C-alpha cells in the first residue's frame, strides 16, 4: 500500500483564496511547491500536481490567465488546448497503471480562478465506492512522494509524450 501524508485542508483553502494565482506563478517560474513541468509550448503548460491523490495526477492550463472554461477562449484556441490535453492524458495513461482516466476542470471564482484541467489516472482495482470524485478528495491525504520522486514521475510522462506511439497521433 502506498504511503500517504495528511494535507492541511484549512491552510490549502486559505492559500488558494488569498495568494496570487498559482498557475501564473508556475508560468513565471515562481512556484512555492514542486511542480515538475511535463509539457510547455507558447500557450499551454502542464505539470505534475504536488498533491498526488492519484499517482500521475497532472494539471494542464493555458499560460495566459483565463478564468472561464469556455468563455475566455475562441473556439480555435479551446480546441488547440484540448488537443494538448488529449496528448497529456494519453501520456499519463501510458506512464502509470490506469483503469480510468479522469479529466475535469475544477476551480472557483473564489479561489483557483485560473482555468486548468486535472488529469487524474485511477489505478486498477480501486473499489467502486472509492472511485470518481471520492478518489480525488484531499481529505484522504496525498501520496508521500518527495521532490525527486515527483521529478521522476514527470520524466516518465515526458518520455511518453515523446514516444513513437505519441508522434503517430
Flag low-confidence runs: none
Sheet with the most strands? 5 strands, antiparallel
**CATH homologous superfamily?**
HIT-like
Specify the CATH class: Alpha Beta
Count of helical regions: 5
How is this structure best described in words?
With 169 residues, this protein is an alpha+beta fold. The protein has one domain: HIT family, subunit A (2-Layer Sandwich), CATH 3.30.428.10. 33% of the residues lie in helices and 18% in strands. It is built from five helices and seven strands; from the N terminus they run βααβββαβββαα. The chain has helices spanning 9-18, 22-27, 75-95, 147-161, 164-167, and strands spanning 4-5, 37-40, 44-48, 58-62, 100-105, 117-122, 142-143. It has a five-stranded antiparallel β-sheet. A two-stranded antiparallel ribbon has the order 1-7. The chain is globular, with a radius of gyration of 15 Å.
Amino acid at each position: 500500500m502506498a504511503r500517504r501524508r495528511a494535507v492541511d485542508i484549512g491552510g490549502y483553502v486559505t492559500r488558494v483564496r488569498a495568494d496570487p494565482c498559482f498557475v501564473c506563478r508556475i508560468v513565471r517560474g515562481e512556484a512555492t511547491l514542486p511542480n515538475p513541468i511535463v509539457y510547455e509550448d507558447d500557450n499551454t503548460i502542464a505539470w505534475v500536481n504536488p498533491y498526488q491523490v492519484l499517482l500521475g495526477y497532472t494539471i494542464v492550463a493555458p499560460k495566459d490567465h483565463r478564468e472561464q472554461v469556455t468563455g475566455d477562449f475562441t473556439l480555435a484556441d479551446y480546441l488547440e488546448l484540448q488537443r494538448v490535453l488529449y496528448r497529456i492524458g494519453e501520456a499519463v495513461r501510458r506512464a502509470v497503471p490506469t483503469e480510468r482516466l479522469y479529466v475535469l476542470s475544477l476551480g472557483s471564482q473564489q479561489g483557483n480562478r485560473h482555468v486548468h484541467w486535472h488529469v487524474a489516472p485511477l489505478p486498477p482495482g480501486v473499489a467502486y465506492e472509492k472511485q470518481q470524485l471520492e478518489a480525488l478528495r484531499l481529505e484522504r491525504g496525498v501520496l508521500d512522494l518527495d521532490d525527486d520522486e515527483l521529478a521522476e514521475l514527470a520524466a516518465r510522462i515526458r518520455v511518453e509524450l515523446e514516444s513513437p506511439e505519441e508522434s503517430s497521433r
